[in-house]
Amino acid sequence: RLKTSSGTNLVPCVKLCWKILELRGRCPVRFDMSDNKVTVHFVNRDGEKITAKGSPGDSLLDLVINEDLDFDGFGACEGTLACSTCHLVFSEEVYEKLGPVTDEEMDMLDLAYGLTDTSRLGCQVCLTRALEGMEARVPESVADIRQTQDSSS
Amino acid sequence: LRVEWRRSRSEVEGWIWGRRSASSAAHQKVCVVGGGPAGFYTAQHLLKDVQVDIYERLPVPFGLVRFGVAPDHPEVKNVISTFTQTAHHARCCYYGNVNVGTDVSVEELREAYHAVVLSYGAEGNRSMGVPGEDLEGVYPAKDFVGWYNGLPSNRELNPGLDCETAVILGQGNVALDVARILLSPIDELKKTDITQRSLDALAQSQVRRVLIVGRRGPLQIAGTIKELREMVNLPDTKPEMVASEFEGMAEALKVIPRPRKRLTELMLKTAVDPPAEKERQRRQAASRSWGLRFLRSPLEVLAGPDGARVAGIRLAVNRLEGTGDGSVAVPTGEVETMDCGLVITSIGYKSLPIDPAVPFDPRKAIVPNSLGRVQQAAGLYCSGWLKTGPVGVIATTMNNSFDTAHSVVEDLTSGCLDATSAKPGSTGIGPLLDKRGVKPVSFSDWEKINQEERRRGAAQGKPREKLLDVEEMLKTVPLLGRGFLM
Predict the structure, then answer these.
(1) What is the ipTM of this complex?
(2) Which of A29, A31, A106 sits opposite B262 (nearest CB)?
């Protein structure tokens, strides 16, 4: 603990300075004082497991962006239900806990490459405490299905 | 209390120790021809390893994201932020207003760069190849879309909208976009970035009925559910379908995958099911209508009494051979005529050859390639629609572009390409352009044009008012072309 010679605790001051630097984007470390986080394990296309933590209420897309996870092309439309590049696949058990799917989400999800019965769009799935430790697989490709083989004749 | 690294380790090292000196990565230079989604996504992936220069014919970037995506689909254009980030990358340079093929040749680019990626898309149209196609009142969808999206070469299209019925040939998403723009309430359109000129024309439009015609059946429609739902829910319009065209669909539904099934269910519900009371009233009050028509192929566009303007279209009635995606439309011999005053052909875009030195397959209208590597042309690559043909959405193009970029990097690192000898890159091309009187537009120049468009739009309550004229775009940029290498 830092203290001045007269016994003043300098830690809050240091914390404030770090926070200012962090907010100004110059600090390479994030200062996280809350324990109210939900852990998510992503499995990327190479089969690698990448663990990240997000706050309840964050969408899985928010989490990927905030944690700078390197999934090529993920979230192209920035969470506005205009693409299917944030497609994620879950186990049945986890899928049941993810909440209802709107028609709007289904419409875009229907176009996702490698669609499964336990697929969702990451931008529409929000973290809750009940999802602590969940696993989300990033499927093989982000190609949208709105392409046909019959491109010429 | 927990401390987490928010930046990658290498970024932090760079921050602490200062920029790394030019590594062999920065020494390798790749040029991308075409500043649309394919070009930018290819560049995004390449920038991890090499210096990338993007050449674009128009002063303004973004290709079909700017000129193809419908004005009422602004979220689809969010990818522009990703592209902007790419353009701002230290190793990326954008050169707009440079026409590859006339201002500089592909050969000259290949001499200046270690690799050249052609991503210039599909600027031509597939034609129906039927008599009457050249009559007034017949427009390729690409041109109609270009018109309402402010593509400079389509600004004088002035489509005649003083007829009641419009027929669109083709049932893909472009056809659905055109139908929706033709029938959308003006109050909705005026909040978008649609051009003022086309907004004024649409406000005067007398088109009240749009028929979207396909040569095959309901199960083969290429449009997707989001766009179809937008038609079903379009204010002040009602669907006008022929229920008998959907016979047998309910049975077929049982065995098809979910996406096709949901789309077909929506069509069936709209075409066949008696509507709920509220919907019934809504339809009764509607002043406009739209419908899908199936198993019809164009035979001839018919002129009216003046012999110059379209008044109708003669169609062959088809039957289907085979099922599903592979089914084929076969004429039955029966013929039908539809009256209409506007025909829009939405049967596909088409790539064009821009340089005789580049191999081109005229039948498929693509540059022949394998995984993006142009056949018989080392150091030449292609991505986007030029590579695969003009199908797919932005995300499809993204994947396709990443694949090509991967091939380029593979070849650069494996020694397949001579990446060790120094190449001049833009320092080689700059003097050529200067000599030829070409003034390239930089990305920050585009940002000035962007600012001007947004300023003009704000005055009208629109996100932007696009500049329609290349000359006007260039005038917006002070000191244009002052420093090609800056």
Answers:
(1) 0.86
(2) A106
Please provide the average confidence, as pLDDT, over all residues in chain B. 93
Cβ proximity of B352 and B82 under 8 Å: no
CA-nearest residue to A109 within chain B is B259
Contact B96, B58 (CB under 8 A): yes
Question: Mean pLDDT over residues B312-323, rounded?
Answer: 95
Interface of A with B (CB under 8 A): 27-33, 68, 72-73, 76-78, 80-85, 103-104, 106-108, 110-111, 115, 141-152
Model pLDDT for residues A13-45, shown as the tens digit of each residue: 777 776 776 666 555 555 555 578 999 999 998
Q: What is the DSSP letter of A57?
A: T
- Alpha-carbon span B215 to B315, nearest angstrom: 9
Distance CA B328, CA B316 (A): 14
Mutate to test the interface with B, among A107, A118, A119, A149 (most CBs of B within 10 A): A107
Sheet holding B310-321, edge to edge: B296-303, B310-321, B328-339
What is the residue whose two structure tokens read 């055109």?
B178
* Nearest residue to A142 (alpha-carbon basis) of A78, A81, A73: A73
The Cα B95–Cα B54 span in angstroms is: 6
Alpha-carbon gap, residue B412 to B419, rounded angstroms: 6
Q: Tell me the pLDDT tens digit for each residue of B419-471.
A: 888 999 999 999 999 999 999 999 999 999 999 999 999 999 999 999 999 99
Taken as a whole, chain B contains a residue count of 486
pLDDT at A66 over 70: yes
CA B143, CA B366: separation in Å to the nearest integer? 20
Task: Output the CA torsion B186→B189→B195→B196 (10° steps).
Answer: 40
Its pTM stands at 0.88
Q: Which amino acid is at B458?
A: A
Q: Work out the minimum CA distance from A5 to partner chain B, whole angstroms.
A: 25
Give the minimum alpha-carbon distance from A103 to chain B in angstroms, rounded to a whole number. 9
Span A108-140, pLDDT tens digits: 999 888 899 999 999 999 999 999 999 999 998
Classify A70 as helix, strand or coil.
Answer: coil
